[in-house]
Structure formats: structure tokens, C-alpha cells
Design brief:
Layout lengths: L1 H4 L1 H22 L5 H4 L1 E7 L7 H9 L6 E5 L3 E6 L4 H10 L8 E8 L1 H29 L9 H30 L5 H31 L5 H33 L5 H29 L10
Antiparallel strand pairs: 1-3, 1-4, 2-3
């Protein structure tokens, strides 16, 4: 009941959180990876041990590849550079053989700037379309189920909650990109779309309980109905999210470098999605609801 009775406070806090996240994106910008900007990625491994990192950077700096060097594990190395031709790749691999060290070429990916720009545009469109489609679906699914609440209010509450679940991870990754150089790539977009699906599931569980309680007329007004519905679904939502987050933390800690930030994005997003379903979507439904229509109506 505490959440529902203080719905305006919780909605205000989380809308402020959205604003802070947007400010972070505006101030720091998004550190886009080569999936969106174009470029090449070379992954190599030194079977007999990786040479000193400073020696590696010094050896390849003369090639003018606009590269960034990222070590992983005890023997691995990832190099991101401008779009490389096959001859440039061969020269780079040779330069990595510091003091005759053995180098194994494990992976090479290249994305042209035109393809990267197209992927960035399609990623933005896909997220926007998913948001609108989910909001419309929820509004449609809850039509004619509870006369006290218009179905479009369910859709709006869901849409705002999901927008929160997109903007907050974006804001956090904008800061992490500025502070630690973490990049946003196509896996981040995949994580965002996964988060939307997970979050809307939690939101619909609460909304469905609200609908059932409205039908049963167990509580005196809409605010109490929402409060009791949150209480009835709270442990389920938290336990489900906690189980997923624990699994993702294990992957983050023990998994490979290539999925580390994907797992981090999912952890942040699922955490945001869980509390937004409880502290934003349902309280916003209370705020949207006309108080004069609450008393004793179905």
C-alpha cells in the first residue's frame, strides 16, 4: 500500500531518473563500437605468453591504424582499428610478433562505415517500434476488462515504464563509455530488446492482478486495489529477477570477454525493469486514473 499511496512521489523520482539519464547521454555521448561506426577487429593469442603491453602498442603505433588495444586473459589481445584491407591485416599480425613471439590469429571482423551507419539507424528504429508495439498491445489486451480504468492508461503506463528501462541503461553506459571506454555495440541493442521483453512481462503480471482484484471488488478504491496487487506479486517479481541476475553475474565474472558488457547491460536493465514495474508502472496507473471514478466502481 505504501507504493500506491505515494504514487506521485515514486513517479516523480523515476521520471527524474529518466531526465538524469538523458542528461548523461547528452553530456558524455555514446561511445559507439565499430558495429555502428565501421572498422576492423582483430583478436590474437600468444600461446607462449603475451609480451609487454607497452611494447605491443609501440610496435603497432607506426602503422597509423587509429587502433585501440585491449588485453584479455593472460594471453589474449583484441585490437580495434580503422577499416583494414587484407594486406593491412597481415602487416598488423606480423608487427604483433614482438621479439619473435608466436601469434595466433583467432578472429577478424570488418564493418564498412556505410553498413555501420545503416545498422545504427535500424537499431534506433527497432527499439522505438518495439516500445510502441508493446504499449499498443497492452492497451489492446486490457480493453473492456475493468470499467474503472481505460485501457489506454495501461498502455501509457507500460510505455513510460519501458522508456525508463531503455534510457537508464543508456545513461549508465554513456558515463561508463566516457569514464572507462566501454563501447556500445550490436550486443547492447540485443540486451535492450531482451530487457524490454523481460520488463513488460513483470509489468503485465502486476496489471493482471489489478484487473482480477477490480473484478472481485475486494478493496474499497482503486489506490488500495493497486497497492494490494503490488503486495501480492512483489515476492514473485523479485525472486524471478534475482535468479536471472545471479546467473548473469556468474557469466559476467567467469564468461568470456566478448559477452562481458552484454551481461552487464542485462544486469542493469533487468534491475531497472524490476523496480520500474513495481515503482513506476503501477503508481503511474494510479496517477493517470481519475480519482472521482475510483470509489466503488468496476
Amino acid at each position: 500500500m505504501f507504493v500506491a499511496k505515494n504514487s506521485k512521489i515514486f513517479v516523480g523520482i523515476l521520471v527524474l531518473l529518466i531526465a538524469v539519464s538523458l542528461l548523461s547521454v547528452w553530456k558524455f555521448g555514446l561511445n559507439l563500437g565499430m558495429d555502428f561506426t565501421g572498422g576492423s577487429l582483430l583478436e590474437v593469442e600468444y600461446p607462449n605468453g603475451r609480451p609487454d603491453l607497452e611494447k605491443i602498442k609501440s610496435a603497432i603505433s607506426t602503422l597509423n591504424l587509429s587502433e585501440t588495444v585491449q588485453p584479455y586473459g593472460e594471453r589474449g589481445l583484441i585490437i580495434k582499428a580503422r577499416d583494414l584491407k587484407e594486406s593491412d591485416r597481415a602487416t598488423l599480425v606480423q608487427s604483433l610478433a614482438i621479439d619473435g613471439a608466436q601469434v595466433e590469429d583467432k578472429r577478424f571482423n570488418s564493418v564498412g562505415p556505410t553498413i555501420g551507419k545503416e545498422l545504427k539507424t535500424k537499431s534506433i528504429y527497432s527499439i522505438i517500434l518495439v516500445l510502441l508495439a508493446i504499449g499498443a498491445f497492452v492497451a489492446f489486451a486490457f480493453r473492456h476488462v475493468s470499467g474503472a480504468v481505460k485501457s489506454w492508461k495501461y498502455g501509457v503506463a507500460t510505455l513510460v515504464s519501458l522508456a525508463h528501462d531503455v534510457f537508464v541503461p543508456l545513461g549508465i553506459f554513456a558515463y561508463l563509455g566516457h569514464r572507462y571506454g566501454i563501447e556500445i555495440d550490436s550486443l547492447f541493442v540485443t540486451a535492450i530488446l531482451t530487457i524490454l521483453g523481460f520488463s513488460v512481462h513483470d509489468t503485465i503480471v502486476v496489471f493482471d492482478r489489478i484487473r482480477e482484484n477490480l473484478k472481485l471488488r475486494k478493496f474499497k478504491d482503486f489506490t488500495e486495489t493497486v497497492g494490494k496487487s503490488i503486495e501480492q506479486t512483489l515476492s514473485r517479481s523479485i525472486n524471478t529477477s534475482l535468479a536471472v541476475i545471479l546467473t548473469l553475474v556468474a557469466l559476467l565474472w567467469f564468461g568470456s570477454e566478448s559477452v562481458r558488457y552484454f551481461c552487464l547491460a542485462l544486469i542493469v536493465g533487468i534491475f531497472c525493469g524490476t523496480y520500474s514495474s513495481i515503482l513506476l508502472a503501477s503508481p503511474l496507473l494510479v496517477v493517470l486514473q481519475n480519482p472521482t471514478a475510483e470509489k466503488g466502481k468496476k
